[in-house]
Write a structure and sequence with these properties.
The protein is an alpha/beta fold. It is about 40% helix and about 20% strand.
């Protein structure tokens, strides 16, 4: 799914064009990929049931205006002398609202999205004219829809025309779990994708989202840099073997340093075994044997609880990721070793140092 989501994007592989939405309920296997924009429909007024839920080649209006009657602010004051003047104010408010709705309808838009609320009057107005509307759309989703479908986000209905309206091949409102989701597919202006995750607990879905984000970043990196190495601890074991052999030809303390780095690299496959519940000692012994025989791509196989040629098994990692990880680890180790002295505050230490401190206690003599 992560590979398909990245493959949908254009050559620049923009990360902001991949959306991840989480819907509580169902199993993880119920997650699916949308080749377009998808976002949750927020609160709707009565009348939205009468609106069509599917369109082919719709025109999309994206707004940042309120389409409802609002009460005046608490500190607003209007002084009137006649009852007729109050009725004129009420009529003017309705005329302004209906004028906005009429301009939206005449623009040819079939789907109306707004960052701000769309009231019950506007919802019923659009339903009577076979139009779909959704208010309180999240700004990030609205901007991604604009990039994918074209058009512009307007703060006035006076500028609605063919250039400011977006379009897509298919629009559908679908029930996903307990939520209603708006799906825009076949977007012509920019390629985008949305992954809808399903799961039982919110904590489980949050962890899945973090893992999925890491997978997406690795796929993007692999597509930008085509040099790959075998994963599953294979490259770490091969580097460890090489460094152990190289350290035997070095005299002096440098041999211990190189040997320590070789030992540290074996932590990666050992941790993979521990996470999968395997016998790490047994797996590492098998890996050392394989790499000593020249099988440089052998790593941990979590599906068989054994070792496997991960390059043939298509368990790959971008080489640039490994290079950056090794550089960062080396720089961090050098930074720690360069610190020759640390100063600790007596208060933070939690120990009583008053006996050795001449400035605590009796004062000056």
């Amino acid at each position: 799914m992560a590979v398909d989501a990245v493959m949908i994007l254009d050559d620049l592989l923009p990360l902001d064009m991949i959306g991840i939405k989480k819907v509580t309920g169902g199993a993880l296997e119920d997650s699916f990929l949308v080749a377009g924009v998808a976002f949750k429909k927020t609160f709707s007024y009565a009348g939205f049931e009468m609106q069509p839920k599917k369109y082919d080649n719709p025109r999309i209006a994206m707004l940042n205006i309120e389409l409802e009657l609002k009460a005046e602010r608490d500190n607003a004051e209007i002084r009137l002398e006649k009852v007729e003047e109050y009725q004129k104010i009420i009529d003017a408010e309705w005329d302004i609202l209906y004028d906005k709705l009429e301009k939206i309808h005449k623009s040819g838009a079939q789907v109306v999205l707004s960052k701000l609320p769309i009231g019950d009057v506007a919802t019923q107005y659009f339903a009577d004219r076979d139009m779909f509307c959704a208010g309180r759309v999240v700004e990030e989703d609205l901007k991604r829809t604009m990039k994918a479908c074209g058009g512009a986000i307007l703060t006035t209905v006076a500028d609605l025309n063919e250039k400011t309206l977006g379009s897509c091949e298919h629009f559908e409102e679908r029930q996903v779990g307990g939520e209603r989701y708006n799906l825009f597919t076949g977007c012509s202006h920019a390629k985008t994708s949305t992954i809808i995750l399903r799961g039982g607990a919110q904590q489980f879905m949050d962890e899945t989202e973090r893992s999925l984000h890491d997978a997406i970043m690795i796929v993007r990196r692999a597509m930008k840099n085509d040099a790959v190495v075998a994963g599953g601890g294979a490259i770490e074991m091969e580097l460890s073997k090489y460094l152990r052999e190289y350290s035997r030809n070095i005299a002096g303390r440098e041999q211990l340093l190189i040997g320590a780095i070789a030992k540290a690299l074996e932590i990666i496959p050992r941790q993979l075994c521990d996470n999968a519940g395997f016998d790490a000692t047994n797996i590492l012994n098998k890996l050392r044997q394989r790499h000593a025989q020249g099988d440089c791509w052998y790593g941990v196989d979590i599906t068989k609880e054994d070792v496997e040629d991960n390059f043939k098994a298509c368990v790959w990692e971008p080489s640039v990721v490994k290079i950056n990880a090794l550089m960062a680890a080396t720089e961090a180790a050098c930074l720690i070793l360069s610190v020759d002295e640390t100063i600790k505050s007596p208060k933070s230490g939690g120990t009583d140092t008053s006996a050795n401190n001449p400035y605590v206690g009796g004062g000056m003599m």
